[in-house]
Amino acid sequence: MSLPLPSIDQLQVLALPAPVSYAPQTWGWWAVLAVVLTGLAVWGARAFGRWRRNRYRREALHCLRRLRAHEDRIRALRQLPTLLKRVALSMPVSQDVGPLHGAPWQDFLQRHSPQPLPDDFARQLALLAYAPHAQLQAVPDAQREQLFETCQGWVEHHHVAV
Asked: Which of 40, 49, 88, 116 could form a disulfide with 97 if both were Cys (CB 3.0 to 4.6 A apart)?
């Protein structure tokens, strides 16, 4: 006894299942969605605020990169103390930074730095600002790079109490 072979004509189109909505079906899922969206909005607002508060830092780092690549070494070195003072003035701190020099300036820089600074960093900055041209010309490349590295590290990582 042989069974008849099925033919293509016998195939039937299957009915599609009813569509299922992707919207949450209970109020609990709406509450979870609201909590997640609120958390994302708070996180985004805080990240945006932090990004805006650090604008002075980004601009100073850009200026520092330009100074480091500047062909006139003496002019670049002379602008380092001014750049650090401008960064300190832009920081939202309660202390009046403008008149600081010498030991108080060193203390301020050290207090806001996460890594230790050289003990004579403020003196080096004063030397860069006021030393004769010939003395700055004699600064070795290694010391020049160390100054730029120290300044960049301070600008990138200084603490700001908010």
From this structure: 88
